[in-house]
Structure to design on (291 residues):
């Protein structure tokens, strides 16, 4: 069962791993409720169920716009017979073509660096975001979460970002960005939206960590060494504040990972090992003072 507070919902999954919520169903239901407009920015799309939901929306005369990462449409090496189906990303290409045939405006990103967004704006009234890619692995094996916010102000902030993305105005190609959006209060919850790299979210994370008084807990797929976040964590540990975190095992043992320095400073680290049922720990979240 999701945690719902007024117009804000938190979904933890996937249910196939024993978690509470069905992530794919949550995304499909969100799309199915669209009345006029869907703006989708996502790193990867290989879930037929999610693609079919977008196509059904278009058949209902909903305007559907999609931006994805182009790396999941091409092979690193030429396939032997390019005129025949095959290759690691054939499903991605098939679904991409299906969306085009449904007259959906789908583009691949305009940046050689990786496009990492995961959000949908629905009818400029609701937002779905979180750590979940719109893939079968992301919704059935990787440990992920989804946040849904029903608020027009929050939705419009993301819609503006989508417009900039679709115009190629992000990353190194950014032509300037407005100030960081103001906090929006939704059902008594203050929501602050920051986009990377324009709004320097790393600094905001460090600032919020500095406000912690009792504890810091986190779950993260990739945590690199020599970032401001791990430096701040090491400083806070010197004040004897308890810190514990969960990390993906395969990412956590890399030479560039922050794992060793954190453990040496007394941070409790739990690693999640992939298994038949669990893929990667893919969360990107932090909890301060259990509040």
């Amino acid at each position: 069962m999701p945690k719902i507070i007024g117009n804000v919902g938190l979904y933890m999954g996937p249910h196939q791993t024993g978690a509470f919520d069905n992530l794919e169903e949550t995304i499909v239901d969100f799309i199915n409720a669209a009345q006029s407009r869907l703006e989708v920015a996502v790193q990867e799309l290989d879930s037929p169920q999610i693609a079919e939901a977008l196509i059904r929306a278009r058949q209902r005369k909903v305007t559907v716009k999609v931006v994805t990462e182009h790396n999941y449409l091409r092979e690193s090496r030429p396939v032997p017979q390019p005129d025949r189906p095959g290759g690691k990303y054939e499903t991605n290409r098939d679904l991409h073509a299906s969306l085009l045939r449904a007259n959906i405006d789908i583009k691949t990103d305009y940046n050689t660096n990786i496009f990492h967004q995961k959000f949908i704006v629905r009818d400029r009234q609701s937002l779905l975001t979180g750590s979940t890619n719109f893939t079968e692995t992301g919704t059935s094996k990787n440990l992920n979460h989804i946040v849904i916010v029903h608020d027009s102000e929050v939705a419009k902030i993301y819609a503006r970002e989508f417009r900039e993305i679709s115009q190629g105005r992000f990353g190194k190609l950014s032509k300037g960005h407005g100030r960081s959006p103001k906090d929006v209060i939704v059902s008594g919850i203050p929501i602050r939206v920051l986009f990377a790299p324009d709004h320097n979210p790393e600094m905001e994370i460090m600032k919020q960590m500095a406000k912690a008084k009792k504890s810091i807990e986190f779950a993260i797929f990739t945590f690199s060494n020599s970032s401001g976040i791990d430096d701040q964590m090491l400083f806070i540990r010197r004040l004897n504040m308890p810190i514990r975190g969960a990390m993906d095992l395969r990412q956590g043992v890399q030479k560039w990972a922050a794992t060793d320095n954190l453990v040496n400073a007394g941070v409790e680290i739990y690693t999640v090992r992939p298994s038949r049922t669990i893929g990667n720990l893919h969360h990107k979240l932090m909890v301060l003072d259990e509040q």
